[in-house]
Amino acid sequence: MTKIGIGVQLYTLRSETEKDFRGSLKKVAELGYEGVEFAGYGGLSPRELSELLKELNLTSVGSHVGIHRLQENLDEEIEMNVAIGSKYVACPGWFPPERTEEGFREVVEILKESSRRFAEHGIAFGYHNHSFEFEEKIGDQTMFDAFFSALPENELFVELDVCWAHNAGLDPIGVMKQYAGRTPLLHVKDLRREEGKLLTVELGTGEVDLKPVLEAAEEIGTKWFIVEQDECQNPPFESIAASREWLRQNYR
């Protein structure tokens, strides 16, 4: 069975990439990450970023592209992700002031058009969850299931964030099995609760039972584990180094 690649979502390092984007990617490679998932491109042109990735022997797993950019800057996003060799692009969530059924239908149309356009260039398009998609309903479905029912498997893949599924009270493995074959990217993330606060923490230091998740991921056809911490409790590079080491010890 082919081993799953290990990447990092660069949103985790946003304070570092703002100071030194090129240097940050170099450190990511030195820590043993094979790929990166972008959340912005550091002001580099498609050609510059493509050359940097080749120099560092890093794979562009893909990019997170928000609803606004899908609406207003889709051509730019396509140009960049084609140039850097992304196989995946995902919408990182839907965060209007108020989520309504009418708004849901509108965002589904944006996702459909985005998927169609990316597919013309061989790039799969997906959606990344938070907790609310499991907690809120569209009709008689959870919003999560509604998104993936509204678009077929070949138009919208699942980028499951196991931490937020756990936080919503679900068994992440159950969701993974429900969407087996449709979940090429898995956000591996841990959380801890302290004094009523939810903290995202380094892998293996929180309450999410991650080892069975890693095993199940191979069974359902996942291609990449993506490390992400929404807020690091330690310096960001220390955090992603600790999570990479945990994956070395528990996966490879």
List the strand order in the largest sheet.
1-2-3-4-5-8-9-12
User: CATH homologous superfamily, by name?
Assistant: Divalent-metal-dependent TIM barrel enzymes
The figure for the number of domains is 1
CATH architecture name? Alpha-Beta Barrel
- H and E string: EHHEHEHHEHEHEEHEHHEEEHEH
Tell me, what's the shape?
globular
Low-confidence stretches: none
| Secondary-structure-derived class | alpha/beta
Any overview of this molecule?
- This protein is α/β, with parallel strands linked by helices.
- It has one domain (5-250): Divalent-metal-dependent TIM barrel enzymes (TIM Barrel), CATH 3.20.20.
- It contains twelve helices and twelve strands.
- The protein has helices at residues 14-19, 21-30, 46-56, 67-72, 74-83, 101-119, 132-135, 143-150, 162-167, 172-178, 210-220, 236-250, and strands at 5-9, 35-38, 59-64, 88-91, 124-128, 137-138, 141-142, 157-161, 185-188, 190-194, 197-201, 224-227.
- The strands form three sheets. It has an eight-stranded parallel β-barrel, surrounded by five helices. Strands 6-7 form a two-stranded antiparallel ribbon. Strands 10-11 form a two-stranded antiparallel ribbon.
- Helix 10 (172-178) packs parallel to helix 11 (210-220).
